[in-house]
Amino acid sequence: MAGGVRVQVRVQPKARSAGIKGVADEADGTVVLKVAVTAPPEDGKANDAVVKLLAKECRVAARDVSVVAGATARRKVIEIAGDPAQLMDDLRRVVSAAAAKGD
Questions:
Q1: Region at 19 (left for phi over 0; alpha for psi -120 to 50; beta for the rest)
Q2: What's the predicted TM-score (pTM) here?
Q3: What domain count does the chain have?
Q4: Contacts of 37 (CB under 8 A, 6+ apart)
Q5: What is the pLDDT of residues 49-97, one digit of tens each?
Q6: Residues with Cβ < 8 Å from 47, sequence gap 6 or more?
Q7: Residue 92: which domain range?
Q8: How far apart are CA 66 and CA 48, in angstroms?
Q9: What does each C-alpha distance from 57 to 28, 31, 53, 62, 73 come to in angstroms?
Q10: What CATH number does residue 50 fall under?
């Protein structure tokens, strides 16, 4: 997408701690970003938490992050508006940090 990136994520709601937990290979071969949030999967609370977490980690406003597919599923497509190169750098940074912590 021009002016941003789309990221496939797998969300773990009601987690003990929130954060980017790394990447995972799905059974269909898709690579997803693993995201844990403490919010429950009800009334959009987990989606809101994912949006806020990704906005913080990518250093953009929450209004620039949206769930474009999978609103009621654990696997979602998230669109983040902004400079694609900068966003990818931010995502690489948080994934590397998660890998270093062993999440």
A1: left
A2: 0.89
A3: 1
A4: 11, 12, 13, 15, 18, 46, 49, 50, 53
A5: 999 999 999 999 999 999 999 999 999 999 999 999 999 999 899 888 8
A6: 67, 71, 76
A7: 4-101
A8: 9
A9: 27, 19, 6, 11, 22
A10: 3.30.1200.10
Residues 6+ apart with CB under 8 A from 8: 30, 31, 32, 33, 75, 76, 77, 78
Q: How far does CA 4 lie from the centroid of its chain?
A: 14
| Nearest C-alpha neighbor of 37 from the set 26, 27, 48 | 48
Q: Which residues contact 64 (CB under 8 A, 6 or more apart)?
A: 4, 55, 80, 81, 82
pLDDT digits over 15-26, tens only? 999 999 999 999
